[in-house]
UniProtKB/TrEMBL annotation:
This is Solute carrier family 66 member 3. The chain crosses the membrane at residues 32-54. It comes from Candida dubliniensis (strain CD36 / ATCC MYA-646 / CBS 7987 / NCPF 3949 / NRRL Y-17841) (Yeast). Belongs to the MPDU1 (TC 2.A.43.3) family. Keywords: Membrane, Repeat, Transmembrane, Transmembrane helix, Transport.
Length: 282
């Protein structure tokens, strides 16, 4: 059976059907379901769509500007945070795949995991370039460049492939289920190393502002949708334990994402002030 949205679009495109009547019927259905629930569902779908490519601006930040800038970005990103995020995505994808959940439900995590893996490999590569010395890359032959790339990414790539094989083929389903329960706690813990790194460096220029702001907005939407589900079940006097856990997890995630964005804003202002003070002293 076609989805209600597809059916609605087909009816709207049908010249023999009154558009006004169709829209009135659709609005009646929205009111019957509840405007809040419909808005929550639409926002949730939007979040999944955007989240599927949320790391692209961060990847771009590692690929543009000068070699020195790319190395600086790579040094500022926390491998611990990214590794935990990637592991979380792998566990989530494995759990859903083993339980034959529709791909649409976990496709976001697969795409996010792939993007994180690309970022980790780029970080390893650029940190390796720093040890060789900035500016030496252009002077290398194609053979030496290939050897450098291979040396930088072989170990992390082997670890990634081995992890994927272990969780998909060797790990018992009971272990996967247990780790899936820890999905939200792991995603929360993963943010602390990056916050610590930003604090130590007193800058967040290595992070993409687009990603930081999108993460905050996404967390806000998830808090809203979770609260909507919680309120609906509570009104019907149903068990709200799962919704309460989700709401607490997403609220904590919102706080930590806000801290990361706050660090970016505060440290940027501190950097601008430092530059202004240096100009005054010249």
């Amino acid at each position: 059976m076609a989805s209600p949205i597809i059916m609605l679009i087909k009816l709207l495109l049908d010249p023999d059907v009154s558009k006004k009547v169709i829209l009135q019927m659709a609005w009646s259905q929205v009111k019957a379901i509840g405007i809040g629930k419909v808005v929550a569902a639409l926002l949730s779908a939007l979040t999944v769509g955007v989240s599927s490519f949320i790391r692209v601006p961060q990847i771009r930040k590692l690929l543009i500007n000068s070699e020195q800038d790319r190395i600086a970005v790579a040094k500022g990103l926390s491998l611990t945070s990214l590794s935990l995020d990637t592991l979380n995505s792998l566990i989530h994808v494995t759990f859903n795949s083993q339980n034959r959940i529709p791909f649409i439900q976990y496709g976001e995590s697969l795409l996010l995991g792939i993007q994180n893996a690309i970022i980790i490999l780029l970080i390893k590569f650029y940190r390796g370039q720093e040890t060789q010395g900035v500016g030496k890359w252009q002077g290398l032959s194609c053979e030496d460049k290939f050897a450098t790339i291979r040396g930088a990414i072989t170990k992390p790539l082997v670890i990634m492939v081995a992890s994927a094989i272990f969780f998909n083929k060797l790990a018992p389903s009971s272990l996967i289920s247990m780790l899936e329960i820890l999905n939200i706690p792991i995603s929360i813990v993963a943010k602390f190393p990056q916050i610590k790194t930003n604090y130590e460096l007193k800058t967040a220029k290595h992070l993409s502002d687009t990603v930081l702001r999108a993460n905050v907005v996404g967390s806000l939407i998830r808090v809203y949708t979770s609260f909507t589900d919680y309120s609906t079940k509570k009104q019907r006097h149903k068990n709200t334990v799962d919704e309460t856990i989700l709401l607490a997890g997403y609220s904590t995630s919102l706080i930590l994402n806000s801290i990361l964005l706050g660090q970016s804003i505060v440290y940027d202002k501190m950097g601008e002030k430092k530059v202004e003070d240096e100009k005054k002293n010249e």
